[in-house]
Structures are given as structure tokens and as C-alpha cells.
């Protein structure tokens, strides 16, 4: 088994440990089960990618981490242990002390995520002042410094620019500055590069990597882009229908995808190497989160159900289990059960 | 900003010219004949013709219009040849009914309209925006439903109904408020601010019932829309407190459309609250306009129409300027 990059001898509590996280929303049509038993462990300074298509629950998971469902009609159960402390039972007021300070978030579309009426610098300074009792002037100086650190030229002048006066890449840099100004230990980046063009994407990912190694923060990279995962992540969690269907190191996911959905995702990814073939999309649609089937959530779209005996795919929900062998990693598929079974060691 | 205001000013002048011309034309096409009205009961065709000359209505239409409009630039002579009097600048003509300077008539009526408008605007803005914000914060709870329900009733109550009900209850039945008197036209008069306040309270409430209801609905709708914006989620993610999120981030964005509405309503109301002034017998601009239109008093009708148009156009410019102050995205560099 590969060790973590730190490879430390003692094992402190992981930065983040999510156990059986479930999020559901009551709607007029019934209860929507957006996240159905999500598990994730993230070590200090590491980056984990959460991958999945639209509606797989990755954004809901990240918002649950920020506690954004507190004081709403949504139900959140399970454990979210940040540095050993469970965030699920905290009240909105208690959670405020964590938001921005220990956990911060970068959003997909920085133009709509920033307030259109306030200068960019003031919004960064505001984020700093929420958690640091300093004068406006001191906070402004911190914000200018932060704008410089994220690579915005002439930060003192750009401090008073408005979001609409920035380019897309600059705005995302400013967004990163806003998220990192209090030096959070955990940074959640929700599709941070989706709204950007490819060259800017690479710059933003590089910047995130640099800042991460400077601050030692752990990062959750929420994305549907396996290319981003390959570039920046240590670990990957594949989500489908609100469940974690496979968790592995980046190398393992690309070398040995175990869940048929992961295999489908990889097959649907364009490759520059080799001759150009038609992409292989996964047929069908994700399950309705209103009425989840008893069996495997992917069974409808899975090309391998015939390999599993007794039609177990449509009758029994598989658990997240690891197969035998040194190169195995947990996945939620009956096919792994046909090999010698081993409960996921934690 | 200066260029922006200059352009708006030029457009304003052009628009006022068009409005004045249309009003003047409509009057000519209409059935009113001020000359026969002015000549009284024992009228002969000869005396009607005389009156027509005295009113200046014997001249061709365009020359009448040009001569009327010239009064806005300089003082001019009005009346029959030989019996002309000077109409000082700014001359809006003389009333066909009373031969009084229209400027003086408007100067007399305006304070009443300002009294009605000022208090009503403050009252409905405070009530409408306050309750709208409260309803948005308590969405789907009892408070919200109560406020929205009350607003639905409020928008369905026309001023004549509210006004008469208020008079019936507070003046006739319980006699707790005075009937509006035309002796009080400003808070600086003999009656003092208190007397002025009590005198205009009922007209304010009548207007505020209708307008607050609209402001509640618009404020609530806009605030709810704003609460769903991404930047509100960002504000929460920073760890801001709820008042900080709601007021600093939410209200600033959610209130912008209300500012537009308010500006236009102020402009509209300064041109005279016709129904309210009628019901409460307040001799303001609206009241005067109705009398003048009924009597075929062209100069007064013209003047009030132009003034109302002027206020609305100015309100538009002010709203645009205010928008630029509130929302940096519309700022003209």
C-alpha cells in the first residue's frame, strides 16, 4: 500500500473524516436524497478529488461541509469530523466560527459568487475582519498583500476594482484570495476551473497547488473533470447517486478502475494519445433521487450486471468494500464481492 | 458623469417640447371653447369673437403655441390688442377663468401637493420596505403570510374607497382627527408641525395603504431573489453574521429595484395626487388640474401637464443617477 506523501510515523487525527454523511431535502414531490452515505478521509496537506456527474451529490456534500444547510429545511446526518471535531451537531452560530476561518470555499462562477456592488479588495478585507479583530486599514493591507500573493498585478490599485472589471481568471484568483485570507486548514474548491478557458485553468490549478504547499492546507477538489483530478489530487472519491462508489489514489483510479461507473467515466474521457476514436458515453441517466431503487443505483446503466449471480444488482445495494490483493481499493460493486471479500479497513 | 447628465438634460428638453405640443394640440382638437365660456350668458357672435381675440385664440394654431411657449423664455404680453398686460417671466399664461397668472396659481397649489406627497412617501417607504423585508426574512411563516395577505388587500383598495372609509371612521364617527383644511399648507405655518401632521395624516394613510402594499410585494420579491444569489452563499461562507449577510450583502442588492420604483412614484405624485386631493379637498396641483380641465382653462391645464411631465422626467434622471451610485456596473466612465 502506498504511504501518504508525509509518510509520518505517528498517525494524528485526519484533517477531515466524513462518515455516513446523508443529506436530504423535503420538496413538494417528496424527499430528495441528495447524499446517501458518503465516506471520506483526508489527511493534512493532501488533496482529494470528488468526481461525479451533475446531480451526483458532490456539490451538496461540499456545502454540507460548510454547514450551509443549517437553518434550512434540509436534513443532514452522519459525522463530519474536522480535526477530530464533529461539525454536524453544531448550530448555525457555532458554525460561523469555522466558516472562512478553518474551512473556506471557492465557488464555480466567481462573477456571481462575488458581490457586484463592493470592490474586490473590500470583499477580501471583509472576510479577514470577520475572524480577526483589526482595523479596516489593517484588513485592507492584508487584502492587498493577498491579492499580490494570488498573482494579481498592481494589487494596491486593483483593490478598489469591482468584480465586473476583472477578467474571469483574475476573478477566480481574487476568489481564491478571499477564501485563503484567513489561512483555512481545509479548502473546498467547487469546480474552480469549470467556468474558465483551458490556459487559465492550468494557471489557477498551479496557483492552488503553490498556495497549498505554502499554507499546508488540505484541499477538496470538487470536479467532473478527470483531467483536473489527474493533475492535482492525491486521492479520488467517485460519487454516483449521492453515494461514494469508489475511493482510491489517483494512480489506482486510472490504472485499475474497479467500479463499472468509474470505468465508464474513464472511457468517456477524450485522449490525445493514440488514434482518435469515438468517445464512449455512459448510456442512460442518473437515478431519481426522489425514489432510490433497492439495488445498486448504477444497475440500470451498468453493462456488467449479467456477471453478478442471482440478479443481486437490482435487489441488494452493494456496500463500499475492498477486494483482495495488494492493489485493491474500496468500491461499491457486487463484482468486487465475487473476489475474496475484505471490509474496508479504517 | 457630466456628459451623461448633459445628454439626459438635452433629452429632457426635447421631451418636454413634444409633450407641450401634444397637449396644446389635444386642447385645440377637443370640444372645449373657452371663448364662448368666457363671454357669459348674453352672448352674441360678435362678443364671442371679441373674447376669442382677448384670449389670443383667433390666431393660427402654431403662432398660438409659439407665443405661449415664448413665455418660458421671457415675459410676454397677453390679452386683447389695446388692453394687453405684461405676464412676467416665467409666464405660463393667464387663467381663462380668473385672469390670474398661472404661475401664481401653481405657486399657491404646490405646497399642498408637497405636503400630501412628502408624508405619504415617507410613510409608505418605511412601512412598505420594512414589512417587505420582514416578510422575506420570515418566508412561509405566519408573519410572512399575514403581511402578504394584508398587501393583497391593500393593493385591491382604491384611494376613493380607503379615503372615504378613513374619513368615515376617524372624522365622522369617532371625531379623533380633523377634516383636512386648506388653511394649512406647510409645517412652518401657524398651525405648526403638529397641526400640519394631523391635518395630512389621513391623506397620507390613504395613499400609503395602496403604495405600501406595492412596495411590500416588490421588496419581498426582490429580497427573496437576492437571498438565492451566489454572493449571499459566499457571504455566509465567510462566516458573516446573519444581520451582516442580510443587510450589508442582501439589502443593498435587493433594494435597488425599489429605489427605481420610488423615484418614479415621487415624480408621479408631485404632479398631483388627483384622487386623494379630491377626496380630502386639498387644493393642490391635482385638484387644480381637474378644475382647469373641466372649465377648459388651457393655460392652467398646459402648465400643470408640463410640470407633471417635468417632475417625472427629472425623477427618471435622478433614478438613473442613483442607480449608478448604487450599482457600479452601470457607472459610465
From TrEMBL, chain A:
Membrane topology, as annotated, equals:
Peripheral membrane protein
Give the ABC transporter domain ranges.
16-266
- Any Pfam family the entry gives: ABC_tran
Q: Does this UniProt record's set of keywords contain Thylakoid?
A: no
Keywords in alphabetical order: ATP-binding, Cell membrane, Membrane, Nucleotide-binding, Transport
Main location per the UniProt record = membrane
SUPFAM superfamilies, per database record? P-loop containing nucleoside triphosphate hydrolases
* Protein's cellular compartments: Cell membrane
Q: In terms of domain of life, where is this protein from? A: Bacteria
Q: Which family does it belong to?
A: Belongs to the ABC transporter superfamily.
- Annotated PANTHER family: DIPEPTIDE TRANSPORT ATP-BINDING PROTEIN DPPD, OLIGOPEPTIDE TRANSPORT ATP-BINDING PROTEIN APPD
- State the protein's name: ABC transporter ATP-binding protein
Source organism per UniProt? Streptomyces cavernicola
From TrEMBL, chain B:
Transmembrane residue ranges:
112-134, 146-174, 194-213, 258-280, 300-326
For the keyword Magnesium, the answer is: no
Pfam families with a match to the protein in the record: BPD_transp_1, BPD_transp_1_N
Q: Which residues form the ABC transmembrane type-1 domain?
A: 110-319
Its annotated compartments are: Cell membrane
The UniProt keywords, alphabetically, are: Cell membrane, Membrane, Transmembrane, Transmembrane helix, Transport
State the SUPFAM superfamilies in the record.
MetI-like
Q: Its topology with respect to the membrane?
A: Multi-pass membrane protein
Name the principal localization, coarsely classed.
membrane
Please give the InterPro entries that the UniProt record associates with this protein: BPD_transp_1_N, MetI-like, MetI-like_sf
Regarding protein family, the annotation reads: Belongs to the binding-protein-dependent transport system permease family.
Name recorded for this polypeptide = ABC transporter permease
* Organism of this sequence: Streptomyces cavernicola
